[in-house]
Amino acid sequence: MGDFGKLTIGSMLSINIVLFIIGFLMYRKWRNPTYLKFLGAFSLMLFANAGMALMPHKLMSAYMFFISLYAAGMIIAQIGIFRLYYNKRTDKLYVHLGGTAVTLITAAMSLFLPVQMSSFLVFLSVVGVTLYTLIKIFPDVGLNPQYFMVTILFAMQLLLHLSGAFTGYELLAELSLILSVFASFIVFTMIFEKIIGVMQAATYTSTRDEVTGLFTQKHFIHQANQALSKGKTVGVLYIEIQNPTHISEEESFKRAGRAVGRALEGSGFAGRYQSDVIVALITSSNLPLAELANSIRMKIDVEASSTVLIGYIDTKPEFTLDDHIREAKEGAIRTKQSGLNRIFDLDQSKILAD
């Protein structure tokens, strides 16, 4: 085996070792059937690649045993990719299952069959999967360029090997490994891309309230305490949503969250502090707090169809976050009790009510 062949085999093994580790870690963490498919597929592919690396010749029965296992692993990986990218679909993928069965049977019979026959059977199963993907899957779900490339490269790899088996040119079989490297690498990028997406989604859902889209209480407190410790704050708003009309309470809060989020763009951040309360920390503002609070009140009043009670306070260096929220809340409560619809000053807190 020349230096180029060693480089190709080494690249294949490296990529498939990484894929196996990823498959193992994904299944260990989430333990669902899709990740089990990936673990099984990458185990087969790694075992097959290791066996292929030990074979001095690429057109022999023992080599066909390993390439048949590799083909089975790649087909199972395609099933996993389909489930991962199109998790809302329930297609049974019988063609893929049939292709997997044919390649596994071929692996079991490869030591007793001519190389040409084994190569043809594996190629036939892969062509069936490829055609089904191109004719049935992509028209239904849309063309995914990476998925398309994996499908085509895999089929071309087996075509090159089949050509080598019938012509006796081992170079064709060796060239097919280059396509295998590219196909495995694209599988890696697809899975890595999805893992990043899952992690980002998990991070978002752990820090964002699912109804309002604002920070959760825990994340808001963490971020607000950091901002207060740095002294980069202007004021705190306490916003209570009451008595939504014409729409549900959840929809009212959803609209209120959007309104607050838009109003605070570039000025600060907010979180859902209680079931009916939003607290905002103003970090910078071109408007006085009174005007900003009034603007937010009107936005919520119009968009969320609710009664809005807002209390606010200028940040004080000696106050903790709890102190600021308590003062703003007390001001809002006084306003609610007085039933006023104006801005005024009470105990260092300014309040606004509807």
UniProtKB/TrEMBL annotation:
Cited InterPro entries: GGDEF_dom, Nucleotide_cyclase, Rev_trsase/Diguanyl_cyclase
The cross-references to PROSITE patterns, in alphabetical order and at most eight, read: GGDEF (PS50887)
Mark the transmembrane ranges: 6-27, 34-55, 61-86, 93-113, 119-135, 147-169, 175-192
Cite the SUPFAM superfamilies for this sequence: Nucleotide cyclase
> Is the Transmembrane helix keyword given for this protein?
yes
| The GGDEF domain, residue ranges | 232-348
* Domain of life from the UniProt record: Bacteria
Q: Which UniProt keywords apply?
A: Membrane, Transmembrane, Transmembrane helix
Question: Would you tell me the protein name for this molecule?
Answer: GGDEF domain-containing protein
Q: Which organism is it from?
A: Paenibacillus xylanexedens
